[in-house]
Every structure is written in structure tokens, then in C-alpha cells.
Design brief:
Peroxisomal Thiolase, Chain A, domain 1; 23% strand
Length: 510
């Protein structure tokens, strides 16, 4: 077919991982990102000629700039750059590149591919790099060793800094009941899926372990994985001192691990440039792209599903003009298993599907480098597609928040027109939330969390009278109640809730 010379292509993909081993250098995140950029440029086969054409460098927002100010010292104890993209550019020979610093959340890498691809197609730019990095493993290692360093930087120049935009990560009702983090909220979503499937706690945990074993086997063979120890499904599903319960039903081996030193980068340019440089055979094309977003978790119809994620997958496939059965491989966002299940549902994939569900090994095993994970997923997809016969298709699903924001890309090793923009699918608020619930309620979901010297259970319930949702905590003074949440199966049980500073959940008198 005739290819429009302005068609955007992915021409290079690179990754870099620094483990805490004998080769450990203690690199700061901008150093890691620069090495990934150099690897991506080398991967194009024309780094010297292409570098002067790169006129955008977009850095995916780092953790140190993705949290509220009071938390910054804990995330960045050694300081941070005022503009990571400019700090990265100072390390690279890209004389014409300007800097973009993205918003937070894991959907940003795929959104940037589409944004910068459009800029290329319109002739606004000639080449772009998307990159990102985290060095939390180094930061924690230095603190454990009682060492200090200085990662602060004030590079000169202009940055298109888009801000963190993390309002969706905070919910007043969850927060006032102590549920602030993904490890608090994703288990509540996961329990609802278990309820909808009608599975016991043990049967569902076995299913989680089987799913995660598929991811682990990929990570164990990936040279860029941060955690490459091979684990069986039985080991992943067995609670132990090394595999502790984080929040029922998730064990440590099943959730994203942010203690990584990882970076990745993508190089984009136009088809005519790839041809002129003699490297057109390395080009990978974006065939479909779609996005979606949800309201706050508590306002959704089902806590265990995402209408907007399913819509984004459907729309991306439709834009590519293919059916889900034609996808040869996927890299599905895997911060928590529920994100994988929902994506699999959207694609009609089952646990026994022979196609790869991940090309990296996933966030629990490959590693969870903050908002930048899916840049790694896209990089792996570039290399996977190059190695496949034509035509071959792959899909990358990027997730942000609590199944809150989604960006899906369909890639292929054959040319296609760059996908047209489609309106973002926005799921509607369906369920009303009440902060001072009536006494009579039913448990819709919960998570039990062992903590140092104590335990707690966070509960999401419905009012018996009108179905409105509320959040509460199990009575912390009632040891038998906490054991009930730990050992029994409270889903669907009728309880009594007392409204207050924190809504307190108790069992009905027997």
C-alpha cells in the first residue's frame, strides 16, 4: 500500500535497569532516563542523523512530582529536579529538543504517543522522545546504608509542565476512613469481582495466583525485570513471612512493587524520515487509540468493573479495524490483578488464553516504575512486533488511578494511517454516596489488613433503605469482629453501622 510520508512511526525503543547488585552505581532517575534514551536512539539504527531532528522530549511525571507537598520529603529525601525533562536533556546530545513534563498516572505514556504522533502528522515537529524513570530502589538503599547524596537540580529553560492532576486519587469518604493508597482501595474492588463470580476466598486466591504466575514467568526471562525470581502459582498464592497479606485478597507477590531503578524511552518520527535514513524496516505503526475515564470509585455502578476501560478497548480495536481475536500479544496494566481481569474481559481473553498477557512481566515482578510503566510495555511491544511475521498486531493497555483513567493503543508491524482522535468515553456517576449512613446496612465489599500490633477492616456498604453507598471501618475494639473479617466471608452480610467521625461497623446481634 502507499504510505503517507507524514505517517508517524515508532522507530526506537530502549530500556535500562539498575539492580542492587555488584554493578550498582546509585544513579539518579535522570541518569537512568538518559541511558534509556540513548538506548532508544541506538535502536533506531540512525542515532547520529536522527538526534538533530528530535525537537520534543516528553518525560512521564515522576513519583517525586506526583504526590502532595507534605509527602515529597519521604519520596525524594535527597531532593529533586525542578524540571526532570530539562535535566535529562542536559545529559543528551539533542540540541533542538524542547521539554514536556506530563501529568501523573499510568495512562500518560499511551496518551503521549498519540499526542506526539499527531504533532508529527501535522508537521509541527520532526521527531520526539517519550521517556521516564524511577530510582526509588536506590533512594531506599542509600537511606538503609545511612548514606546521603544530592539529587536536586535547577536546570535553565522552559518546560511545558502540565501539573500532577491527582485529584482523582483522593476521595473524602475513603480518606477519612484511613484508605489513602492503592493497597487500600484496589482490594475493595477485587472483592466485588470475587462476589460477582461467586467464588470462595480460597478459590479466588488460587485464581489470582494462577494469573500472576503467568506474569512471573515472563519477568523471570526479561533482562530488564527488577524482580526476576521464578515463582510457582502455589508460592504466589501462599501467605508467608516473605509473601505477607497486604490487603485481603492480595498477597505481596500479587501487587505492584515501586522499589525499582528502571527507565524506558521511545523514539517517534515520520515515515519519510525513516525512509530517508534507511531504517524504515524498523518502523512500528499505531493503528488504534482510545481513552476513557471514570467518576470517583464510590460513584460507579460496580466497584469491580470499569465501563470506560472496556469502551476504550472496543474503540481502539474499532479504530484499528480489527477484532480482538486478531491481537497476537497484549501488555495489560497489572498494578493489581483486578486491572488485568477487567482488560481481559474487554478483550474476551481467558486465563488459559495462549497469547501473552504481558511482554514485560508486569508491575508485581518486572517492576512498577511509577507512572512510566506502560512506556516499558510499549517498548517491549515494538521489539515483539519487529520479530513477528506480517501482519501482526499487539495491544497495550495503560491504566491510571483506581481503574479511573485509561489509554489503549493497538500497534502493528504493517503500515496504516495514523488513527483519528475519538472523544474520550466518560462513564457517568450512577451511585450516590452518603457520609452519615442509616444503621441498617449490607456489606458490598471490604478489605482486611493486618498491621503492626493491630488489624483493621475497611468496609464499603449499602443502605438497606435506598441502596446508597457508604464507607466505614470495623469496630477496632471488637477482636472477634476483626477475626470474622479475616477468616469468614462477610460479603453480602447485613450489619449495623454507627455514623460518626469514622463510621463504625458492627455485626448484628445474633
Amino acid at each position: 500500500m502507499s504510505i503517507d510520508p507524514n505517517t508517524p512511526v515508532l522507530l526506537g525503543a530502549g530500556q535500562f535497569t539498575e539492580r542492587l547488585d555488584d554493578n550498582f552505581e546509585g544513579l539518579m532517575p535522570e541518569d537512568l532516563a538518559a541511558r534509556a534514551c540513548e538506548a532508544a536512539l541506538a535502536d533506531t539504527g540512525a542515532a547520529a542523523s536522527l538526534s538533530p531532528l528530535i525537537d520534543r522530549l516528553a518525560c512521564v511525571r515522576m513519583f517525586a512530582h506526583s504526590v502532595p507537598d507534605p509527602i515529597v520529603p519521604a519520596i525524594a529525601p535527597f531532593g529533586r529536579s525542578s524540571s526532570p525533562p530539562l535535566s535529562i536533556l542536559r545529559r543528551l546530545a539533542l540540541p533542538n529538543a524542547t521539554a514536556i513534563y506530563s501529568r501523573a498516572c499510568g495512562d500518560e505514556p499511551q496518551r503521549l504517543v498519540f499526542e506526539l504522533g499527531n504533532a508529527l502528522a501535522r508537521g509541527e515537529i520532526n521527531g520526539a522522545i517519550i521517556c521516564g524513570a524511577e530510582a526509588l530502589a536506590t533512594s531506599r538503599q542509600l537511606q538503609r546504608q545511612g548514606l546521603s547524596t544530592d539529587w536536586s537540580d535547577e536546570p535553565e529553560g522552559e518546560t511545558d509542565d502540565r501539573g500532577a492532576c491527582i485529584d482523582l486519587l483522593f476521595d473524602a469518604e475513603f480518606n477519612r476512613h484511613g484508605a489513602w493508597n492503592p493497597v487500600d482501595i484496589y482490594p475493595i474492588q477485587e472483592q466485588v469481582r470475587r462476589s460477582e463470580l461467586g467464588l470462595s476466598k480460597s478459590a479466588y486466591r488460587a485464581r489470582l495466583a494462577e494469573l500472576m504466575a503467568r506474569f512471573n514467568s515472563v519477568a523471570a526471562a526479561n533482562p530488564y525485570a527488577m524482580f526476576s525470581e521464578l515463582m510457582t502459582a502455589a508460592e504466589i498464592g501462599e501467605e508467608s513471612s516473605k509473601n505477607r497479606l497486604m490487603g485481603d485478597p492480595h498477597l505481596k507477590s500479587m501487587v505492584a512493587k515501586d522499589g525499582v531503578n528502571q527507565a524506558s524511552a521511545l523514539v517517534l518520527t515520520r515515515w519519510e524520515t525513516a525512509q530517508a535514513l534507511g531504517v524504515a524496516d524498523r518502523a512500528i505503526f499505531l493503528h488504534g487509540h482510545a481513552t476513557g475515564s471514570e467518576p470517583q470509585v464510590l460513584n460507579r455502578n460496580s466497584l469491580g468493573q470499569s465501563e470506560s476501560m472496556a469502551a476504550a478497548y472496543r474503540s481502539a480495536l474499532a479504530g484499528a479495524g480489527i477484532e480482538a481475536e486478531q491481537i497476537g500479544a497484549a501488555d495489560l496494566y497489572s498494578c493489581f490483578p483486578i486491572a488485568v481481569w477487567v482488560a481481559m474481559d474487554a478483550l474476551g481473553m481467558t486465563l488459559n488464553d495462549p497469547r501473552p498477557l504481558t511482554l514485560t512481566g508486569g508491575l508485581p515482578f518486572f517492576g512498577g516504575p511509577g507512572n512510566n510503566y506502560s512506556t516499558h510495555g510499549i517498548a517491549e511491544m515494538v521489539h515483539w512486533l519487529r520479530a513477528q511475521p506480517e501482519p501482526s498486531y499487539g495491544v497495550v493497555g495503560a491504566n491510571g488511578g483506581y481503574l479511573s483513567k485509561h489509554a489503549v493503543g493497538v500497534y502493528a508491524n504493517i503500515p496504516a494511517e495514523f488513527p483519528e482522535a475519538v472523544p474520550e468515553f466518560k462513564a457517568a456517576e450512577v451511585v450516590e454516596v452518603v457520609s452519615d449512613p442509616e444503621p441498617d446496612g449490607v456489606i458490598e465489599s471490604y478489605t482486611f489488613q493486618p498491621q503492626k500490633g493491630s488489624a483493621r477492616a475497611v468496609v464499603v456498604g449499602r443502605q438497606m433503605s435506598d441502596g446508597r453507598r457508604w464507607v466505614g471501618v470495623a469496630d477496632p475494639e471488637d477482636a472477634e469482629l476483626l477475626v470474622w473479617f479475616e477468616k469468614a466471608d462477610p460479603l453480602g452480610e447485613q450489619i449495623v453501622v454507627s455514623a460518626g467521625e469514622r463510621n463504625i461497623v458492627r455485626r448484628r446481634a445474633q
